[in-house]
């Protein structure tokens, strides 16, 4: 989940920050207009599946790039006991990773019914368990269910079900074999091979398609926390966007932006959002530009271990993007010779456009997808940069 940037944390005792277990309905209630969920509601069904519905039906324009915003999708409702069984009582050797939301465990469920299965049988899933100390946890958990529970697209991680059992909040996702883009770019391990340039381009296209889908519907969805750790990879390095805890419905009624408390991750958030709290659809485009820089350079968006002036990647690298002769000096040495000077220039110019200070000058994600696809199709093979 994202971090708060320069704003006051929510009151941990408020009803929007955590569930009231003493007067808890069977499943979450409607999200208010000021919450991350933007007015999507949850209603119950009687067969172990929940039905999530929007205030208005999805329109014919809700489909983009083979995806759908579903009016009444089904999610499996799990008990806490179910997920204890699926994870061998949340044993430490079942841990896949840890984040701001809490700990992610591997578990197993039946492929057809999604019911808990014995260790090593059925289908492996990722089970995210809320850290009880998380102040924003319930709000973000609820937004994740409301948004991702209705979204269906090849480049979005699939949410299979959830658990709300007293104070226990959990989410069950499809398992992504290759982990996060962040781990492949930045973590030094003999078990993780450097991503080739072609694979990086493939990942960029997949992630861009996911964002373009979110931006394409009548009910614009602003993702708000686009970063390398939220891009997960399946066994074929297909990219899928995960973690919708900070997602927000976009502007309506002719407005250009929504105003909200500044949340996200330092180094990725757009400058207009940090300065004013004004959140645009194009704010996601800026975050995409930062991730594109990370894939080009192999360097983190923000790193205090780097010298002054180079700690924030955009401040350091952005001026070089328009200097064609210097581009190779900022590129990840692990992919040297895997791209042509023409392709490098094209990707650099795209990154520069995504990182424009004025959000109105940034391309749409649909245009970003089209440009990246053109680069992938036309890129010459085995022509190193000179």
TrEMBL record:
Stated name of the protein: non-specific serine/threonine protein kinase
EC number(s) from the headed UniProt entry: 2.7.11.1
Classification of source organism: Eukaryota, Viridiplantae, Streptophyta, Embryophyta, Tracheophyta
Subcellular location: Cell membrane
Main function: May be involved in plant defense signaling.
Catalytic EC class: transferase
Sequence ranges of Low complexity compositional bias: 9-26
Binding residues for ATP: 129
Pfam families recorded: PK_Tyr_Ser-Thr (PF07714)
Domain of life: Eukaryota
Entry's Gene Ontology cellular component terms: plasma membrane
Keyword Protein biosynthesis recorded: no
Keywords: ATP-binding, Cell membrane, Kinase, Membrane, Nucleotide-binding, Serine/threonine-protein kinase, Transferase
Domain Protein kinase: 90-386
Location of region: Disordered: 1-40
Family of this protein: Belongs to the protein kinase superfamily. Ser/Thr protein kinase family.
Entries under Gene3D superfamilies matching the protein: Phosphorylase Kinase, domain 1, Transferase(Phosphotransferase) domain 1
Major localization class: membrane
An MF annotation (GO) of this entry: ATP binding
């Amino acid at each position: 989940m994202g971090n708060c940037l320069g704003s006051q944390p929510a009151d941990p005792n408020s009803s929007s920050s955590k569930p009231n277990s003493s007067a808890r309905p069977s499943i979450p209630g409607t999200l208010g207009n000021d919450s991350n969920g933007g007015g999507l509601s949850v209603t119950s069904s009687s067969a172990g599946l929940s039905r999530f519905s929007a205030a208005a039906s999805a329109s014919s324009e809700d489909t983009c790039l083979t995806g759908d915003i579903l009016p009444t999708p089904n999610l499996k409702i799990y008990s806490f006991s179910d997920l204890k069984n699926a994870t061998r009582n949340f044993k430490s050797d079942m841990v896949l990773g840890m984040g701001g939301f809490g700990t992610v465990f591997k578990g197993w469920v039946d492929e057809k019914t999604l019911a808990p299965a014995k260790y090593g049988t059925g289908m492996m899933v990722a089970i995210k368990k809320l850290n009880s100390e998380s102040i924003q946890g319930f709000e973000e958990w609820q937004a994740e269910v409301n948004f991702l529970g209705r979204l269906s697209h090849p480049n979005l991680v699939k949410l299979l079900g959830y658990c709300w059992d007293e104070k226990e909040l959990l989410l069950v996702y499809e398992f992504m074999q290759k982990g996060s883009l962040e781990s492949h770019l930045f973590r030094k391990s003999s078990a993780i091979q450097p991503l080739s340039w072609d694979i990086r381009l493939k990942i960029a296209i997949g992630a861009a398609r996911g964002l373009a889908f979110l931006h394409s519907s009548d009910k614009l969805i602003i993702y708000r926390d686009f970063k390398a750790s939220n891009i997960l990879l399946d066994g074929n390095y297909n990219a899928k966007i995960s973690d919708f805890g900070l997602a927000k419905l976009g502007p309506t009624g002719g407005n250009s932006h929504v105003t909200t408390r500044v949340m996200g991750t330092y180094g990725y958030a757009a400058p207009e959002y940090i300065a004013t709290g004004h959140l645009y659809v194009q704010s996601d485009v800026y975050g995409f530009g930062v991730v594109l820089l990370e894939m080009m350079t192999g360097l983190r968006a923000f790193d205090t271990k780097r010298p002054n002036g180079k700690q924030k990647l955009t401040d350091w690298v952005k001026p070089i993007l328009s200097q064609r002769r210097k581009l190779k000096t900022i590129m990840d040495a692990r992919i040297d010779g895997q791209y042509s000077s023409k392709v490098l220039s094209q990707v650099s110019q795209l990154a520069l456009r995504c990182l424009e200070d004025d959000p109105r000058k940034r391309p749409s994600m649909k245009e970003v997808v089209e440009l990246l696809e053109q680069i992938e199709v036309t890129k010459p093979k085995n022509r190193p940069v000179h």
